[in-house]
Amino acid sequence: MPIDDFPFSDAPNAALIRLTDKFGYKSEEEFEKEDISFDEKIRRLRAALVYEEMSHLKQQIEAQGIEVCAVNEDTYIEHNKTYYYPYQVFLTDTGHYYSSKEELFFIPGYFRKDSRQGEEKTPIKQAEKLGARIQPLSSSDEQGIYFEGGDFLKAPDRALYFLGYGQRTEKKAYAVISQIIDEQVIPIQLLRKEFFHLDCCLTPLPNDVLLLYEGEYIRDKQARLLKNKQGLPLLIKHTQTISDYHRAYLRKLYDPEKIILLSTPEAIAYGANGLILKSNADSRYKMFVNGSSGATERESEFAVYDHFFSLSEKTRDAILSLTENRMDIIEVPYSSLHYAFGSVHCTIEEFYQTKS
């Protein structure tokens, strides 16, 4: 059925963030080493910049009247040495909060990559402190089901979720989540290894609008999209991000006029990795996305290519127009994590705060 037939459902209105100045570091010994090379100095500068940009994002979210809770930096001890989780800033992958009948739940992540296993332990403890009921996808005596929160996206104001599978999350997560959550879940098969989470190529927006990257589009000399017999835009070989079946399904779910197609430069600059939260202060949606505060960068024809911005002016205007003044776009410098395959949404866990 079309998306406007789905019932209303509250949207996330708070956030969790895990700040650390040790991004990319695996151990205390490695981080505290004094005699360092030039490359190591660059590495530490990058880690410091990640911390700076994340701290600024936290301030910007709070400035919009949205509460942000901090999750503790995580470590573990092995053979009397202290170790870090090098990618723990990507908090959204550690699980997903959802609200049902005024009760809060948390689905913990279960990581496929060895380097990320264990990141979910502290977020689970945090969820318990916040009063959430933990809802694992498998029992303790069963083989775990791979699931990462970056693959689970909610459509604003709708009782509807999208679940990406095929790269990090496995398909059988869909069947289990569909049984435990009382909202519709639509699976989306991910095909391309560079876009391994759904939040790298799809963003549901307010007013039943969809931001989407399907691959490198083929256009004619007038820059018009070329389409196949099924009416789907043609794509350059090996660039496709989601299956044809799900591309067609999305066009049945959404009004095609409300689907905004991202360009490849925008997708590579994480244009689909914006964070959507609803402010209790003014009841408006806020979209936080990478973008420089400098006007000169915006004027550059390479602004998106150079990751100064993740969205072109044309795309920003389309978002504001199609969401019909229901949402504000807040651009924050956030490109320091792009080389590590993440941006704004990857680092923020969406949360539900009781309205006062």
From TrEMBL:
GO terms (BP aspect): L-arginine deiminase pathway
GO molecular function term, any single one: arginine deiminase activity
Record field: catalytic activity: L-arginine + H2O = L-citrulline + NH4(+)
Pathway(s) it belongs to: Amino-acid degradation; L-arginine degradation via ADI pathway; carbamoyl phosphate from L-arginine: step 1/2
Enzyme class: hydrolase
Entry's transmembrane regions: none
Gene3D superfamilies from the UniProt entry: L-arginine/glycine Amidinotransferase, Chain A
This enzyme's EC code(s): 3.5.3.6
Source superkingdom: Bacteria
Protein name (database record): arginine deiminase
Organism: Legionella quinlivanii
